[in-house]
Amino acid sequence: MRTIISGATIVNEERQFMGSVVIENERIVDVLEGVKLQADNENLFIDAQGLYLFPGVIDDHVHFREPGYEYKADIESESRTAAAGGVTSYMEMPNTNPPTTTLELLDEKFELARQKSRVNYSFYFGATNTNVDALRQLDPHRVPGVKVFMGSSTGNLLVDSDSSLRQIFEKSPLRIVAHCEDNNVIARNIKAFKKRYKGQNDFPVRYHSRIRSVEACYEASSKAVALAKATGARLHVAHVSSAHELSLFESKPLEEKQITCEVCIAHLMFTTEDYDWLGTRIKCNPSVKTPEDQAALYEALNDGKIDVVATDHAPHLLNEKVGGALKAISGMPLIQFSLVSMLELADKGILPLEHIPQLMSHNPARLFKIRDRGFIRKGYYADLVLVDPNANWQVGEGRYYTKCGWTPMDERNFKWKVVRTLVNGVTAYSDGIVIDGIRGMELVYD
C-alpha cells in the first residue's frame, strides 16, 4: 500500500508549488508538481488541501538528557516532543551522565535510541583533554561530529588545555562542533559583579548577558576559527548569538565552506528585553543578547553567513531554574516550537518562507552529508511535515510534550501549527497525538 499526500503547497529547494507526494516502503516514489490526486481504495490518502508540506526538520543540536538525567527528560519523551514539532531527525549532544566520551558509551546511546526514539537519531562524541586518541576510531558513517566545549556549560566536558584543543583540531577525522564561550572572560565578569555588589553570590538574571557576554563568545569563537584555519579542521560553531561573532563567517555557498555556523531558536525569538517577563525561563548558554544582536542574526539568515537553524533543546525542571544569573540552571525546551517559530518570522518578513527548509532541513543534510534525507525528492526517505497556516492557536498546558513540563513559549499565540509528521513514510504525530509504536532510524552519513 502506498501513502498519497495530495494537494499540498510544497515548500522545498527554495520553491513553493502545489502538488502531491507518493510514498512507498519508507521512501518518496514520486513528487507530482501541479497534480492533485484522488482517493482510492488501495492507498492511504491524506487530503492536504490548504496545508503546507515541508521536509522534516533536522535538528543538529539537542540535549535529551539520557542517560543520567531522566528525571527531567529522556530519549523517548523528547523524541515524542520532536515529532509534535515536525522534527524528524536529531543529533544529540554528549553532556549526559556519564558523558559520551568513550566508544562503549556511544554504542550504549545508539542502542537506547534504537529502542526508544520516535524519530531518526544520531549522537555526537564528546571531546575531553584526554581522549584525543579515540577520535580516529569513530565511524564517520555513524557519528556526525565531535563536540568540543570551549566554555563550561551543563556537564563536565570543558576542554581547557590549549595543547589538547589543538590536537583535537589536528586529529579529528570528523567535523568539530564547538560551544564557544571564554571561561576567563566569564570569570572576570563575575568577579567584577561581585566587587560591585559587595560579594553577593547571585545577581538578577538580566545580568546573565553581561556575564556570559559578547566578548566571551567572540574570544572563544575567534580562537576556534583561527585553529580551524591553521589546522584545516572542519568547524561548525554552535549557537552564534551576537553581531560581533558574525564577522568571523563568510557569505558564500555552504559547499564552499570549511567553517560554518548555527543559530538557535532562543536567540532568534528572545532578547535581553524579555528577561523582565520571562526571567530565568530564557536563561541559556550562550545568553540571549540585545535586540541589535538579534537584528544582525536576522540579516545573517538571509545573507548566507548562518548555515543552520537548530534549537539547543535543553530541558530542566522549573525548580532548577530558580535563582538568578549565577544560580539558575541554563537551558530551555524548544524543539516542539522551532518550525512554527521560524514560520512566524517569515510572516513578519524577516526571511522568505522558501528559505526555511534550506536552514532547517537541506543545509543540515548537506553539512553532515546525511544519506537520503532533508529534501522532498524522489528516492529520499519520506520525512515530512504538514503545517496548517491558519490554525491561530495558543500554546498551553496539555499542548506541549516535553517531560520537564514547561516551555518559554507558554501562552504564545501562533498562526501556524504542525498537524502531521511523517517519519520514514509513517505518521508519527497527527492532530495532537503522538502515535505509539513508531520508531525512527539511525542516521547514516556519506
Give the helix/strand layout.
Elements: E1 3-12, E2 15-24, E3 27-33, E4 44-47, E5 52-55, E6 57-62, H1 75-84, E7 87-92, H2 103-116, E8 120-123, E9 125-126, E10 146-150, H3 162-171, E11 176-180, H4 183-196, H5 208-211, H6 214-231, E12 235-237, H7 243-246, E13 259-264, H8 265-269, H9 275-278, H10 291-303, E14 308-310, H11 338-347, H12 356-368, E15 384-388, E16 393-394, E17 413-414, E18 417-423, E19 426-430, E20 433-434
Give a description of the structure:
This protein has twelve helices and 20 strands. The radius of gyration is 21 Å and the shape is globular. A hairpin with a 2-residue loop joins strand 2 and strand 3. It folds into two domains: 111 residues, Urease, subunit C, domain 1 (Roll), CATH 2.30.40; 313 residues, Alpha-Beta Barrel (TIM Barrel), CATH 3.20.20. The mean pLDDT is 96. The protein is of the alpha/beta class. The longest helix has 18 residues. The strands form four sheets. Strands 1, 2, 3, 4, 5, 15, 18, 19 and 20 form a nine-stranded mixed β-sheet that branches.
